[in-house]
């Protein structure tokens, strides 16, 4: 049974307007305003000591020997904040500490979140053809390996009681409800995390040195729900992956985004070395918004450069003994993120852009082909998976003519013609 609005608000909120925790149609529980509020007005404030964050978990470890037994202080201090939060969620769910305010908070959290990682195998198969199928399988494998490591490392302590489903559910709670601090670390905040998403959100949250505050971004009337925008640049796939739903207005005049992994290039002898320059696997982002169609993939500009296009490109051993590439483009050292700006200034920019757009076209065509082919062997899907499939199909269908237009223009460039003529003469 959920605690009453007053019980939860009194336990965690320091300041607030008149509000209530209510059932919101199609969304579950949310926060509803019970008085008119002006833009810029403070709606509620929760002290950081009341939220689940690194500092409060550290204090909890000092008071709870069972929880502190999970790791020595030195190990705990270097543990990622995400894993710390997952541990506290699993610990509280399995403990009998009814007096803890955090247990009161946990009683408000859903017992199931409809994220694809938690779907049965048959429903996950229904994601084939979308940008989510492989990421969901990878996330499942990551969580399984993470859980197996816990069992091996802490088998004689309380984590041995954590099941794989417990760990996956804790991860889903974390991903769907966490708020990011300016430092990059995250927190779980009672009450505030009840605010649902809206593309036309009326509120925003912010951190002070000792609290989280929620402010009105526009006038809020009595009875209105208090809403946040979970991410104006997120596409349908990201929403489904992290939150378990697709906002209705995604792709209908706002923004639609598809992010896919850039596959390895077996024809480029430098591909492995180039990828070692990336902090994470390179992605390409296709998007449609009110300004038009666009794509973003800085790595592709790096990928299309041949060895002779660099001023120099070689491997060096750094001070830690690791081998890493050192390179310059047209006499300048730069980063992958800044490389497109340098290429824009190059006398051969039309040639480089032609290469890039041809590669982007290949990726979009392959994604659309895979999307269309999935209809042949998937007899049934969850409605939300079908929604995602069709949205992504629509985006790729729109973006291919856009790409072809650029390719045709660059192919007519005098720079490209002269370069090809030079190459033919050398052969």
UniProtKB/TrEMBL annotation:
<keyword id="KW-0489">Methyltransferase</keyword>
<dbReference type="GO" id="GO:0016279">
    <property type="term" value="F:protein-lysine N-methyltransferase activity"/>
</dbReference>
<dbReference type="InterPro" id="IPR050600">
    <property type="entry name" value="SETD3_SETD6_MTase"/>
</dbReference>
<dbReference type="Pfam" id="PF00856">
    <property type="entry name" value="SET"/>
</dbReference>
<keyword id="KW-0808">Transferase</keyword>
<protein>
    <submittedName>
        <fullName>Lysine methyltransferase Set8</fullName>
    </submittedName>
</protein>
<dbReference type="InterPro" id="IPR001214">
    <property type="entry name" value="SET_dom"/>
</dbReference>
<dbReference type="InterPro" id="IPR046341">
    <property type="entry name" value="SET_dom_sf"/>
</dbReference>
<dbReference type="GO" id="GO:0005634">
    <property type="term" value="C:nucleus"/>
</dbReference>
<feature type="domain" description="SET">
    <location>
        <begin position="17"/>
        <end position="231"/>
    </location>
</feature>
<dbReference type="GO" id="GO:0032259">
    <property type="term" value="P:methylation"/>
</dbReference>
């Amino acid at each position: 049974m959920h605690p009453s609005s007053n019980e939860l608000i009194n336990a965690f909120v320091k300041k607030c307007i008149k509000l209530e925790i209510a059932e919101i149609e199609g969304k579950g529980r949310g926060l509803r305003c019970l008085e008119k509020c002006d833009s810029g007005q403070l709606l509620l404030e929760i002290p950081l000591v009341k939220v689940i964050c690194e500092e409060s978990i550290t204090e909890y470890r000092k008071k709870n020997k069972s929880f502190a037994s999970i790791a020595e202080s030195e190990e705990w201090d270097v543990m990622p904040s995400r894993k710390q939060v997952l541990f506290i969620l699993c610990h509280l769910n399995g403990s009998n500490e009814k007096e803890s305010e955090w247990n009161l908070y946990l009683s408000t959290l859903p017992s199931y979140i409809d994220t694809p990682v938690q779907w049965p195998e048959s429903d996950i198969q229904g994601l084939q053809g979308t940008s989510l199928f492989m990421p969901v399988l990878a996330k499942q494998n990551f969580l399984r390996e993470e859980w197996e490591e816990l069992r091996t490392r802490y088998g004689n302590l309380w984590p041995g009681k954590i099941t794989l489903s417990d760990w996956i559910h804790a991860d889903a709670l974390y991903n769907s409800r966490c708020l990011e601090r300016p430092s990059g670390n995250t927190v779980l905040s009672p009450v505030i995390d009840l605010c649902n998403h809206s593309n036309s959100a009326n509120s925003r949250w912010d951190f002070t040195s000792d609290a989280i505050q929620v402010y009105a971004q526009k006038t809020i009337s009595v009875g209105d729900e208090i809403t946040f925008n979970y991410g104006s640049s997120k596409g349908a796939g990201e929403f489904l992956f992290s939150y378990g739903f697709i906002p209705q207005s995604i792709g209908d005049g706002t923004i639609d985004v598809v992010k896919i992994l850039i596959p390895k290039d077996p024809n480029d002898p430098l591909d492995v070395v180039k990828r070692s320059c990336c902090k994470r696997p390179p992605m390409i982002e296709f998007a449609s918004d009110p300004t038009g169609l666009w794509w973003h993939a800085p790595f592709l500009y790096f990928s299309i450069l041949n060895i002779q296009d660099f001023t120099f490109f070689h491997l060096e051993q750094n001070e830690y003994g690791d081998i890493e590439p050192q390179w310059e483009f047209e006499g300048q050292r730069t980063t992958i993120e800044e490389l497109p700006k340098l290429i824009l200034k190059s006398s051969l920019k039309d040639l480089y852009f032609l290469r890039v757009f041809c590669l982007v076209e290949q990726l979009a065509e392959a994604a659309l082909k895979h999307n269309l082919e999935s209809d042949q062997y998937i007899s049934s899907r969850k409605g939300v998976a079908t929604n995602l499939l069709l949205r992504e199909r629509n985006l790729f269908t729109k973006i291919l003519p856009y790409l072809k237009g650029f390719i045709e223009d660059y192919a007519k460039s005098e720079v490209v013609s002269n370069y090809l003529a030079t190459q033919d003469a050398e052969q």
